[in-house]
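ok so heres the complex, two chains, lmk if somethin looks off
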Amino acid sequence: MRKGRTIFFENAPKISATATVAGPKECAGVVGRYADVPLVDDMFGEDTFERAERKMLLTAVRKSIEKARLTEADVDFFLSGDLLNQIISASFTARATKLPFLGIYSACSTMSEGLLLAAVLTDGGYAEHVVAATGSHFSSAERQYRYPLELGTTRPPQSQWTVTGAGSFVVSAKGEGPAITCGTCGRVTDFGVSDVNNMGAAMAPAAADTLLAHFADTGRKPDYYDLVLTGDLGALGSRLLKDLLWEKGVDIGENHVDCGEIVYKIVEDEFQGGSGAGCSAVVLGSYIYDKLQRSGLGRVLFAATGALLSTVSSGQGETIPCISHAVAIERTDARATRGEERL
Amino acid sequence: MRKGRTIFFENAPKISATATVAGPKECAGVVGRYADVPLVDDMFGEDTFERAERKMLLTAVRKSIEKARLTEADVDFFLSGDLLNQIISASFTARATKLPFLGIYSACSTMSEGLLLAAVLTDGGYAEHVVAATGSHFSSAERQYRYPLELGTTRPPQSQWTVTGAGSFVVSAKGEGPAITCGTCGRVTDFGVSDVNNMGAAMAPAAADTLLAHFADTGRKPDYYDLVLTGDLGALGSRLLKDLLWEKGVDIGENHVDCGEIVYKIVEDEFQGGSGAGCSAVVLGSYIYDKLQRSGLGRVLFAATGALLSTVSSGQGETIPCISHAVAIERTDARATRGEERL
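and the predicted structre for the whole thing:
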């Protein structure tokens, strides 16, 4: 069933397992306690950053399948994408696993696009188990999108730091785990920001657009959720999002958290927090998933955000098109407790 | 319903309209008579090749919606990707249309991945109308993947020519048009080819893998189809595919055609034919779709093929991972006539 841009999953597919790999800088923060594979060296034993990124992704994928007590033969589809040109991390991971592979790209909102499509495939009866995964690496992203690392370029205060990490989610038609109850597809939004160091400002309108659509389509209000979790707006972008929604009469001040804002212990004069496809994948797949399983959190609206630029589009004078996809993840008992389980 | 890697679409979503834009070199060939927008200038009035590529894609998308007698407000999802880094042609097209957008990437098999997912969304009741589209431009691809155009590099005889063109398909839950009856998801296959000028050889094993899975999952034989249409293997790749299948006891010699092989009037000593995401999108969306609607062709198995390399992966010594997704497109009356309508 669908209303507007929101798909309702009547069979409520479950996130039966997650697995995350996180770099050393990331493990110093909130995800350190929860990451399945914390790295002490961001090269992960490889000789290039790109190979390290792909090894993180493959490790997360295999670990998640293992944690779901499945084998690769049980997985019907693998949905993945990443920030590198031609999503090579995802494609090479798919080569290593031999899983039936559907490549996706939504920049840093790849995780929520993956979860949305995984839910469609399982809810619709087309698959028993789907793996959705993504990741990023600070050094491979930096040298592809910005400057050679050897330059030691000074980072402006509005910038964010690409997370080194990967997250993988097993979405199952049946079984245990928090359910994906609905998802809202994003539209490309562009408010004319062209500063490639200010992704938070570029992406905030996309998050606002999707959240407004989600609340309108579902009839829910922000306080329906224990947590509205955006992907990597960072500190500045998060404030912009709250303002943009406030202007429309929607207040998410009480229960909004941004993965990019919490992933590092940030000093805001230096930079705005984490970004990258791996940012929200790691935070949701470790810290938040643990809370969804064990305590406190009953209902999370996960809205990752992505900036769909390339170095060529920026070089040719284009502004930054952005998108945000959202999925609602709910604990079944939380729904029962609250008694608001209508979709 | 699914068996192995093949999804069966019990509600048989229809391809209610297609639209294609093709460059001057392409219009000299078989698609010239059928393209909705034949170009006399491959710049399409723009100042960069990348902008021309995106204008082709946007034009094809809008034209297909118009031909389906819909407006953009009727389209529930837009699935698209392309060869440029970070799929900017698709993202900027999504920005211009404001359609709910799901970015996909499967290199030159993007068209069949898009049709597969469009069929899932419509068959599953999640959408009324989905647009799936892709395109490519010789000059933007050449300068991104290979050499600056100004170099005038000599092309080796095993090379292919990236098609300048775009194709867009409207997939509808109900209505008229040939139906997508099933689809087989590809796996990444890599036989160790590292010559980036020999895509046909790299991709042939991926096509063979998917076709074998398709025939095994469906119980169909090649002669079930009037046409087994691969994407852009070119002349050499097509011969390799036939040989690979022949070794497994499957003969597609009688009814196999490759979009890349037929799109140009090729002189095989010079090069192997067309390639690029736009190649199969344009051939299927114009010439073949016309035959599916008006005459002869009743059942087509469309298996586009993609090479998932990047300049970085090749530069770091990797071989070329490839994939092929297949969708079966069948005219309803053809199914009735033949009486083999079991799925």
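quick notes: Residues 13-172 of chain B form a domain with the Peroxisomal Thiolase; Chain A, domain 1 fold (CATH 3.40.47.40). thats all i got rn
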